[in-house]
Design a protein that fits this description.
With 256 residues, the chain is mostly helical. It is built from ten helices and no strands.
């Protein structure tokens, strides 16, 4: 049975907007996830389907950021490894635990992430970023932070980009385009392992998901491409607005 045309258009637009938002700042799930719920998809299946669709969109945006990706294996390997481990753990938690308790933690997590992004550069003592000469202690901190982010991302994923940007800001990165490039790669790894878990468990609704995937590919690439043409201050401001909006949203959902 095919989707009604108006539902297909709605899901395509939601996927495109979610993909574009993820490419620029993060938080695309807060468009794509409610859209799936609105079309009648059950919450757990909607979360899994949303993760699959936006993961494809994030992967598409990687190509637009490729010129900003210049990291050594010393940096990339531990961050990628913790992303894989945390993504698997988070996906397992989603499929085996109730969401209510976690939803009450989310607003505090997002509040902390937004504040970290705003003040991260001031909190960083090294200011060294993730270059080849990054200290071992800073790399260990980044890896532990990334593990926590990955567990969260595998569990829900909404706002995982903000959390990764916050971690990179604390470490000392200042180039928002380079930060977005690394955020996209790490987010792709986290959601990639979660996607495999959801597919194996049969949690994805493919009829709605296929339409959203196409939209996320278009939005992800175009969002990343045009974001790099904007002043860094604008992108940073947009990230802060998105993070603040998500924090307010989560507090409302959890405690209203």
């Amino acid at each position: 049975m095919y989707l009604p045309i108006h539902i297909a258009i709605f899901l395509f637009v939601a996927g495109a907007l979610g993909g574009a938002l993820n490419a620029v700042a993060g938080g695309g799930s807060f468009i794509a996830f409610p859209a799936l719920l609105f079309t009648g998809v059950a919450p757990i299946s909607a979360n899994a389907t949303n993760t699959v669709a936006l993961w494809v969109g994030v992967t598409a945006s990687t190509g637009a950021y490729r010129k900003h990706l210049e990291l050594s294996k010393r940096v990339m390997v531990p961050l990628a490894a913790t992303s894989v481990i945390g993504g698997i753990a988070g996906a397992y938690l989603l499929l085996h635990t109730p969401a209510q308790t976690f939803l009450r933690v989310l607003p505090w997590l997002m509040l902390g992430a937004t504040l970290l992004f705003v003040f991260g550069a001031r909190l960083s003592r090294s200011g060294e970023g993730l270059g080849r000469d990054i200290s071992t202690s800073a790399l260990v901190f980044a890896s532990i932070f990334e593990l926590v982010v990955a567990v969260y991302g595998g569990y829900f994923g909404g706002g995982v980009g903000i959390l990764n940007l916050a971690m990179l800001a604390v470490i000392g990165m200042t180039d928002i385009h380079a930060m977005n490039a690394l955020k996209v790669v790490l987010g792709g790894i986290i959601n990639g392992v979660a996607v495999i878990t959801f597919i194996v468990k049969g949690a994805v609704v493919w009829k709605q998901g296929a339409v959203m995937i196409v939209g996320a590919i278009v939005g992800g690439y175009l969002g990343a491409h045009y974001a790099q043409k904007l002043p860094q201050a604008w992108i940073r401001g947009f990230v802060i607005v998105v993070g603040t909006g998500m924090t307010v949203y989560f507090f409302w959902k959890a405690y209203a």
